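[SOLVED] Need 3D model of a two-part complex

Original post:
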Amino acid sequence: MELLEKRILKDGTVLPGNILKVGSFLNHQLDVDLLDAMGAEFARLYQNQKITKILTIEASGIAIACFAARYFKLDNNCSVPVVFAKKNKTNNVNSDVYSTQIQSFTHGKTYDVIISKQFLNAKDRVLIIDDFLANGCALQGLIKLVQDAGATVVGAGIAIEKGFQNGGQLIRSQGTRLESLAIIESMTENSISFRH
Amino acid sequence: MELLEKRILKDGTVLPGNILKVGSFLNHQLDVDLLDAMGAEFARLYQNQKITKILTIEASGIAIACFAARYFKLDNNCSVPVVFAKKNKTNNVNSDVYSTQIQSFTHGKTYDVIISKQFLNAKDRVLIIDDFLANGCALQGLIKLVQDAGATVVGAGIAIEKGFQNGGQLIRSQGTRLESLAIIESMTENSISFRH
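Solution:
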């Protein structure tokens, strides 16, 4: 998506350790016009797929997921709901939730992620949306939660995929449809190049 | 806001400890059409206030803030940006951020909340948006962050205010404009009544 690539080139910053900072528009300050355009693009990519729910994970996936949701309509013409998985703050995971463990690339730790069972069911056709894909742990965790519910993963929509890490290849090799709006082929402190 | 009150009556659940569960539409699963209508209502309440930024706190404030932001335009006709304060996951708070401590009513603990200094400046006219107001700790923390930046708090927009707790009175008595879309006067497991 050219609009997103241009914005990454203009405002993204590469830090040591393969960190791409996009806090000025994507995950601390939010450019809601850009996010809305990204939502429309996800809707174009996944049109006619009878999506019933958009799943993301707190916190930075929520905004993109919400804007995308407005472009997906249920049969009653309401927008599809967004469900965001929560990073569990307590140690007790109870029987009312689907849960899995996710290892964070950015924060270097593992945490429990949960979704209340009442918000995912076997009839759901789910589009998973997130801001970043690196090693794929978060996305694999979300896919597992959908599968635990017996629901269908229609595909995943990612804002920025780090193409030089193995998450994208891993997810695609498992047969999950994956659409990333910008795929970074390589990056250094002075340059960022994209895969097309 | 009648639409929100009706939805609370229909789908909200009161649990012991003055907990109001609205996870089916506001803070776990998100009804984005409702959130969009709430955003429009905040825009009506704060029109002509020359808002330049919407501030919220992760995670559940993000969606409401984003939908509101689309209704507030800058002079260049872009939507105002949303900035969300982050609950700090590391122990080091550096000099690049404004930080404060907030005590969570729901989770019963205190955490550091931070905003990168580059996303708030003295010229900003800020509308603070959040999903809940109970004892007012989160809102007071966000007000402090705006003041630390030398920016102006135009007001706050809250989805659900627990009118039987003291946060609303506290904030209003400090002279901050506060608009809550639904104010709960009292609630029990069997009934919820609103202040009008």
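Edit: The mean pLDDT of chain A is 95.
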